[in-house]
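Run log // design_07
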């Protein structure tokens, strides 16, 4: 096995991951693309009035994905190296010197090179690749005797001679622009007279910063200068490239006419073909060249560490939105960067895992991750508190406790108090037994507690807290996700509080009824003692002294008994009142927890799920961007 075969397979695997990640970054960006993204000085920077992803940046990324897919589907055993340069740079002469024949005749008029010429070492399998490059058949030249000429090391090389980049022919300039992006490696041929030409530096060389592995500069025609001037020219060109951010770009001085430096250039071609990594290196360099433009759309981590850590590589941090989850996977599925124009990406199935790894001890599969888990806990709790306040949760719980306390006082207090109109039970209308009109009045009263303005303010504060420190469009998308169901929140809070109040308004304890009977018994005995005392006094005053009704001595005892019944009733009422207050406190806490649970469910379903899904997309964007950038451990 060749010593570089393993690293080559690893490189292709990493490149595949990077392309997949870049495709996901583009998908996420397109879903949040703003309007008016064009018209800036830097096509990879969004304008000030644009709140979304730059359309130019996304278009460039899609172009890279398309070129990568097309190139990787073609011959992997050929390496395309293009010679580019201006008029009079000796590019065609250098092409012929490397080819060993006059395949691209140098001309004496401008422009000298009008068409793309190709010299192929090893023609088998190269035709589709040449078709994709747009090389006409009459300009293709095959080195049929490659194995007989001692150039077997170049087997698999496709050497292109591009038209002059400064040609007055528009089609020639367009061909250079296109093929300089499609070629696996570009060698720019400069001459001593025009090596500092701003046209080639600004249009082609400076944008190739970061493409050092697949980009070389050749200073041709050094034979026209004395040795010292040739070295000065080379040093000045080196200085220009360093100043333009191209310190890693090699500079090779050659003379196509005399052959000086051709051995070093041929060695470069041989090594590039031998390693057979120019294809992947060029695609990786293209990704590196544009990935920095997406850095402006990243910010601090929003999801809790547990939510980020629980996310599997290549999977979203939280479950997808319902409409996304309903899409059925299609087979077979291909990577997005291998699709033709007009084709859509098929939904990819989840990473294959043995079914027993997803099973619970009961034999069932666990539920999907909750998107709300990506919402910061502090912000979620603050929103729940605000919604509880908007729903009047504390007031309703206190009203229920007061009603229970008043009910206890009526049932366990002095019976005569029950005959006196007391406080109205504020929760009685919420009970089903209160009648349809009473329930309707209670619902209207509860709805008035959850004002839309209070809900909107709470959601605004929540959205600002979640999106704090994030760039656009993420800060805005967080707020929009939080407000997506804002109109439904007041009604849902009203229903939640009403249902909790109805469920919490239980019947009084049975022993309260026994105390009521006991109080009535004491009252009856007290009244009976007083009544008998009056009867005995009246009978005695009428002169009747026979029987027990004439025994005046019984009156004190009867009055003492009545007073004792009154004191016993008072003590009973006092003791039961304390018990009723404790029961009311417990009911207030129970009602508060019940209503808070229902309010939290409303908060979860109408706000946290949508916001958490957007946060998970943001965290996935950062994760996929790190993979696309080729950062280790991403």
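design_07 sequence
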């Amino acid at each position: 096995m060749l010593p570089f075969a393993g690293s080559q397979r690893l490189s292709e695997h990493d490149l595949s991951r990077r392309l997949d990640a870049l495709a996901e970054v583009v998908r996420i960006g397109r879903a949040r693309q703003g309007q008016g993204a064009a018209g800036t000085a830097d096509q990879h920077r969004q304008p000030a009035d644009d709140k979304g992803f730059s359309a130019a940046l996304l278009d460039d990324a899609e172009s890279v994905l398309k070129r990568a897919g097309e190139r990787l589907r073609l011959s992997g055993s050929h390496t395309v190296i293009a010679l580019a340069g201006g008029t009079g740079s000796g590019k065609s002469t250098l092409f012929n010197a490397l080819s060993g024949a006059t395949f691209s005749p140098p001309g004496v008029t401008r422009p000298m090179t009008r068409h793309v010429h190709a010299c192929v070492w090893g023609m088998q399998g190269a035709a589709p690749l040449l078709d994709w490059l747009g090389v006409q058949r009459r300009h293709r030249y095959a080195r049929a005797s490659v194995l007989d000429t001692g150039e077997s090391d170049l087997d698999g090389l496709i050497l292109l001679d591009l038209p002059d980049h400064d040609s007055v022919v528009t089609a020639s300039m367009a061909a250079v622009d296109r093929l300089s992006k499609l070629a696996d490696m570009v060698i720019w041929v400069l001459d001593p007279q025009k090596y500092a030409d701003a046209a080639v530096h600004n249009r082609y060389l400076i944008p190739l910063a970061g493409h050092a592995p697949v980009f070389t500069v050749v200073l041709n025609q050094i034979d026209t200068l004395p040795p010292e001037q040739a070295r000065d020219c080379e040093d000045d060109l080196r200085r220009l490239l360093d100043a333009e951010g191209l310190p890693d770009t090699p500079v090779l001085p050659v003379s196509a006419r005399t052959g000086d430096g051709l051995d070093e250039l041929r060695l470069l071609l041989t090594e590039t073909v031998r390693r057979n990594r120019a294809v992947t290196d060029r695609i990786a360099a293209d990704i590196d060249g544009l990935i920095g433009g997406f850095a402006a759309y990243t910010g601090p981590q929003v999801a809790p560490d547990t939510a980020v850590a629980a996310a599997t590589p290549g999977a979203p941090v939280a479950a997808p939105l319902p409409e996304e989850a309903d899409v059925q996977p299609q087979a077979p599925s291909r990577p997005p960067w291998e699709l033709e124009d007009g084709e859509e990406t098929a939904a990819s199935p989840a990473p294959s895992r043995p079914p027993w790894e997803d099973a619970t001890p009961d034999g069932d599969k666990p539920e999907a991750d909750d998107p709300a888990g990506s919402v910061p806990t502090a912000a979620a709790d603050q929103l729940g508190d605000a919604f509880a306040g908007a729903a009047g949760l504390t007031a309703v719980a206190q009203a229920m406790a007061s009603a229970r306390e008043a009910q206890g006082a009526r049932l366990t207090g002095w019976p005569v108090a029950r005959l006196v109109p007391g406080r109205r039970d504020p929760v009685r209308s919420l009970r089903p037994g209160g009648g349809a009109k009473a329930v309707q009045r209670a619902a209207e009263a509860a709805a008035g507690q959850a004002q839309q303005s209070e809900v909107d303010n709470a959601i605004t504060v929540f959205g600002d807290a979640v999106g704090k420190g994030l760039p656009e469009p993420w800060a805005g998308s967080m707020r929009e996700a939080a407000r997506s169901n804002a109109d439904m929140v007041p009604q849902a809070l009203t229903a939640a509080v009403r249902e909790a109040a109805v469920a919490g308004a239980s019947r009084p304890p049975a022993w309260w009824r026994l105390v009521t009977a006991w109080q009535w018994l004491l009252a009856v005995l007290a009244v009976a003692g007083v009544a008998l005392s009056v009867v005995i006094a009246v009978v005695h005053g009428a002169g009747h002294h026979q029987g027990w009704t004439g025994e005046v001595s019984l009156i004190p005892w009867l009055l003492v008994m009545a007073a004792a019944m009154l004191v016993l009733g008072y003590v009973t009422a006092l003791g039961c009142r304390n018990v009723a207050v404790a029961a009311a406190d417990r009911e207030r806490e129970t009602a508060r927890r019940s209503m808070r649970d229902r309010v939290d469910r409303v908060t979860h379903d109408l706000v946290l799920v949508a916001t958490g899904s957007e946060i998970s997309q943001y965290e996935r964007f950062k994760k996929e961007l790190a993979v696309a950038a080729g950062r280790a451990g991403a």
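The longest strand covers residues 79-85.
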